[in-house]
C-alpha cells in the first residue's frame, strides 16, 4: 500500500507520523523499529503498515513533512524580519536557521538521515536532496534579488549555502555552538565583496 499524504491521515496515522518523527530525530532512523513507533503511538504495527505501507515510506514522509515545515518557517521568518530585498534578507536566513535549531540538539535531520540511508534506493534520499537543493536555490534567488550580478549570483549563492550547511554540522558534530554566528559573518563579508 502506498503511503498516504499527511493531509489525508487518520488520527491514528497522524499519531504514528508525529511519534515516528520525534523518535527518528532523537534516536536515528535505523535505531527505531516499527514496534517501538506503534507502541509509543498507542497503535499496532498493522495500523502503521496499513497507513504507510512500509517503514521506508514513513521515513520519507517524516523527512518530507520536516522539509515543508522548514520551508514555511524560513519564508515566514524572512517576511517578518527582512521583508525587503537586500543583504539583510540574505543574512536573515542564517538568523532563521539559528532560531530553528535552538532546540534541535541533534542538528540537521537531513544530514543525520543521509548518514543512515545515503547511497541506497531509500525514498527518503530524494527528499534529502530536494531539501539541500532548495537551500541552494533560496540563497541564489535572494542573492540575485539583493543586487549581485547574475553572472556571480549562482556562485555566491552556492558559497552561502555551503556556509549554511557547514555551520549546521560544525554546531553539532564539531561541538562549536557559535558556528552559525561565524557563518553569518563570513556570509556578510562574501556578500559585501560581491556587491562592491
TrEMBL record:
Pfam family, one: TetR_N
Entry protein name: DNA-binding transcriptional regulator, AcrR family
Keywords: DNA-binding
The UniProt record lists the keyword DNA-binding: yes
PROSITE patterns documented for this protein: HTH_TETR_2
Chain ranges of the HTH tetR-type domain: 10-70
GO MF, one example: transcription cis-regulatory region binding
Record-annotated DNA-binding residue ranges: 33-52
InterPro entries (alphabetical): Homeodomain-like_sf, HTH-type_TetR-like_transc_reg, HTH_TetR, Tet_transcr_reg_TetR-rel_C_sf
Keyword DNA-binding in record: yes
Amino acid at each position: 500500500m502506498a503511503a498516504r499524504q499527511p493531509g489525508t491521515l487518520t488520527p491514528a496515522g497522524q499519531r504514528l507520523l508525529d511519534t515516528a518523527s520525534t523518535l527518528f530525530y532523537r534516536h536515528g532512523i535505523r535505531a527505531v523499529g516499527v514496534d517501538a513507533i506503534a507502541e509509543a503511538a498507542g497503535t499496532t504495527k498493522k495500523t502503521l503498515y496499513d497507513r504507510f505501507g512500509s517503514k521506508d515510506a514513513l521515513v520519507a514522509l517524516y523527512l518530507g513533512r520536516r522539509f515543508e515545515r522548514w520551508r514555511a518557517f524560513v519564508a515566514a521568518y524572512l517576511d517578518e524580519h527582512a521583508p525587503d530585498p537586500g543583504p539583510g534578507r540574505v543574512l536573515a536566513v542564517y538568523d532563521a536557521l539559528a532560531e530553528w535549531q535552538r532546540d534541535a540538539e541533534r542538528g540537521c535531520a537531513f544530514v543525520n538521515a543521509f548518514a543512515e540511508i545515503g547511497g541506497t534506493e531509500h525514498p527518503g534520499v530524494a527528499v534529502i536532496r530536494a531539501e539541500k537543493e532548495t537551500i541552494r536555490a533560496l540563497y541564489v534567488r535572494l542573492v540575485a534579488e539583493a543586487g549581485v550580478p547574475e553572472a556571480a549570483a549562482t556562485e555566491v549563492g552556492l558559497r552561502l549555502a555551503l556556509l549554511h550547511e557547514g555551520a549546521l554540522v560544525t554546531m553539532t558534530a564539531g561541538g562549536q555552538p557559535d558556528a552559525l554566528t561565524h557563518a553569518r559573518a563570513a556570509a556578510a563579508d562574501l556578500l559585501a565583496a560581491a556587491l562592491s
